[in-house]
């Protein structure tokens, strides 16, 4: 793909600075629509769970349209069939939903991963303490030269709802796409998320490339 992956863009100071808030919002919306298709609109009534949603698996074309890639560990099942049970969980630490350790696998697994992705796209930091203290501007990547706006707060709130510990407290991807496309739809207040208890998805290279965020990451851990 012309612009490689989202991980490639965000893990570098200059490349990350080139990705505006407008473009990041476009990417978030595109990822949500892709997951909604896999979960709710795939051919033959199938439900497809990707199981490895992460920055490096989001490819970007020449116009930064996101493409979900690497379906090597994806699972599929019929709408009216039995949900799959996993005896040997695989995936990427930091993006795996907490219930997965017990072998439970539903589309809410991908919802959790999506929430982690959104928080990383916006900030690259753990978000709960900043959210609970209403310090929303601190979540914004320092390379995004925009003033605080209500839209950003809403995106953060949606992401935190996606990373709730209980799968039943998370929205499905159809709800997420509706929330992202209609700011008039109300949102519930997120509880303290499971995201607090898992490592960030970024690898060590990210912290090296982004030393300005390192203190923030340590502070919020």
- Please give the radius of gyration in angstroms: 17 Å
Overall number of structural domains = 1
State the CATH architecture: Orthogonal Bundle
Q: What structural category characterises the helix and strand content? A: mainly alpha
- Tell the overall outline: globular
CATH class: Mainly Alpha
Q: Give the N-terminus to C-terminus distance in angstroms.
A: 34 Å
Q: Write the element-wise H/E pattern from the N-terminal end onward.
A: HHHEEEEHHHHHH
CATH superfamily: Transferase(Phosphotransferase) domain 1
Low-confidence stretches: 197-221
Total DSSP E strands? 4
Q: Number of helical runs?
A: 9
Helix content: 25-40%
Strand line-up in the sheet with most strands: 1-4
Mean pLDDT: 78
- What amount of the residues lies in strands? 5-15%
Describe the structure.
This is non-specific serine/threonine protein kinase. The structure is a single chain. Helix 4 runs antiparallel to helix 6. This protein is 40% helix and 6% strand. It has a single domain, classed as Orthogonal Bundle (Transferase(Phosphotransferase), domain 1). It has nine helices and four strands; from the N terminus they run αααββββαααααα. The strands form two sheets. A two-stranded antiparallel sheet has the order 1-4. Strands 2-3 form a two-stranded antiparallel ribbon. Strand 2 (58-60) and strand 3 form a beta hairpin. It is mainly alpha-helical. The protein has helices at residues 6-10, 13-17, 21-40, 108-122, 128-132, 150-162, 173-181, 204-209, 211-220, and strands at residues 46-49, 58-60, 66-68, 75-78.
